[in-house]
Write a structure and sequence with these properties.
3-stranded antiparallel beta sheet, 3 strands, 24% strand
Length: 79
């Protein structure tokens, strides 16, 4: 039983470490990465865009939806 809790705690620590390492150092770096990916991979600027979300501390690369569908998040750039 004790081994089970040790494994659960270890998995939690590894998960938190992964989340911290999977972030950009600043909003500027996240912004630059989002706009770089937008310019390199998505050639229709009227359909795609980057937006800053202050509450969740991330830049979001998205594809705009039409009047009936919401926008689709393509990638999140957390900082």
């Amino acid at each position: 039983m004790r081994l089970f809790w040790i494994l659960i705690a270890s998995a939690g620590i590894l998960f938190l470490a992964f989340l911290q390492l999977n972030k950009f150092g600043s909003a500027f770096e996240a912004d630059q990465s989002c706009h770089y990916m937008l310019s390199q991979q998505y050639q229709e600027p009227q359909q795609y865009g980057c937006d800053h979300d202050l509450e969740t501390r991330q830049w979001i690369l998205y594809k705009e939806g039409n009047q009936k569908l919401p926008s689709e998040v393509i990638k999140r750039f957390r900082y």
